[in-house]
Amino acid sequence: MKTYLSAFLISFAFLVVVTPILIHYGRKWGLVDVTNRRTIHRGRIPRIGGIGISVGTLFPLVLLYFYHNNVSQVFFSTLYNPLIIIGGGILISGLGLLDDIKGVPARWKFLFQIALAVTAYYLGFDIEQISLPGGVVHFGWFSLPITILWIVGIINAFNLIDGMDGLSSGIAFFVSITILILALHNNIPFVALISAALAGAVVGFLVYNFNPAKIFMGDSGSMFIGFILAVLSLKGASKHSTLVSVLVPIVAMGVPILDTTLAFVRRFLRHQPVFMADRQHIHHILLSKGWNQRRVVITLYGITVLFTALALFSIFLKDREAFLIILVFSVVVVVLITKLGYLDMLLSKHRTGRENRTEDMLERMLVQRLSHLPLRDMEELIFSLPIQGFAFITGEGKQLFESGDKDPVNFLDIPADGEHFLRLYWKGVVPTINSRESLMFTIIAKSLLSFFGEEKKNPANLT
User: Which helix (H) or strand (E) holds 132?
Assistant: First the structure.
């Protein structure tokens, strides 16, 4: 137990000391978060905190190489463990840092994550079978795609939820503690050690990352956290591949998993690119209801604590009784989806191919008609809604046109295409937009895009 506590304290102290240095040089070198249409912060905030998290987590493992005990013996007994944890952690954090500094296309990040997941699978970080009350289920060749889906999914889950001060790092702490307890219960010491080190690192970082944040972790931190938690949960469950061991990390990571699942379903139903950013994540929805950042983060902390409590409680249950945890978890998820307004969107009417073709024809006709209206008429059309102002912006946040009053919180972005957005500043709280309403707003956004495209050819439209 002293080894785990030492790892936690070393990582914590490392981040407390190193993070101010990263803040200083992040500002000095201009490695700050760029304000765009999705950001909710103001000011020049460094976004290289992930370097400290990754190095701080791996630092106790390097020290352990020179201190021989039962934990170090297990961790370094095979080359595979340090190769995936240390080597893979450095690689994924390095990719994130490159993305933070220069930007990496989503396609290449995705392929890199898949390659890393495949490597982890062939080096023993997988689940080949699971013991259920009715017998053992062997995954066979499905084990590889399941492993890839899990690792890549968790990496992107923590990357997507890193949109608010202290949110991703706080949730990572609770999940790390859960996996630590599971590893101790299953007698997997090196998983417990790394979980303790990661918990210490994210708490040390949270000292500077909680609202108002002085530094962000960036992709170098969020992807590192997601990768480490994904492979640790696989290794922590592989030795005892029971329903409970597999269930614990899934329930503990319920908030980022739910947020990512809703994001992909939402974009699929709206016929948008699945990797396209938006402001409809769980924390954005709560923020649009008038909550401040601290209230949103603390609320999501509370939900995560509930999920981790369910996960830890299931450790002491038999597999048959663990289905009760699944039931409670499912009820909480349904309540969250309903309260956040996602249910109407998820239950939207399914359209046939013929209806889609008719819909496309109607959309083109409406866009053509609306785009030929004078700008004054376009404004009147938009202001007939409960809107106090609107702006037409690019994906980088450059404003092409604005009218009315702004609101830094209560606004909704509607894509006109992959590079232009209609930002609507709502009167009061932004309502949850279902798929049909989204389609109608998209028609208005596309009409404005067409209008501004014709503006140079016919300046009379401005009158």
Answer: strand 129-132
CA distance 217 to 168: 9
Using one digit for the tens of pLDDT, what is the confidence trace for 63-113? 877 777 777 777 777 788 889 999 999 999 999 999 999 889 888 999 999
Cα 211 → chain centroid: 18
Can you list the positions of beta strands (E) in 305-438? 387-394, 399-404, 411-415, 420-426
Q: Please, are residues 409 and 441 in contact by the beta-carbon 8 Å criterion?
A: no
CA distances from 100 to 26, 96, 206, 227 (A): 11, 6, 19, 17
DSSP for 261-321, written as a single string: HHHHHHHHHTT--TT---S-SHHHHHHHTT--HHHHHHHHHHHHHHHHHHHHHHHTS-TTT
The four Cα atoms 229, 231, 232, 238 give a dihedral, to 10 degrees, of: 140
Q: Tens digits of per-residue pLDDT, 144-155?
A: 999 999 999 999
Residues 264 and 274: their CA atoms lie apart, in Å, by: 6
Closest to 251 in 3D by CA, of 349, 317, 339, 345: 317
pLDDT of 352 above 50: no
Rounded to an integer, what distance in angstroms lies between the CA atom of residue 389 and that of residue 424? 6
**Residue 399: beta bridge partners?**
393
Q: Which of 381, 423, 383 is nearest to 399 (CA)?
A: 423
Q: State whether residue 432 is helix, strand or coil.
A: coil
Better-predicted residue by pLDDT, 146 or 456: 146
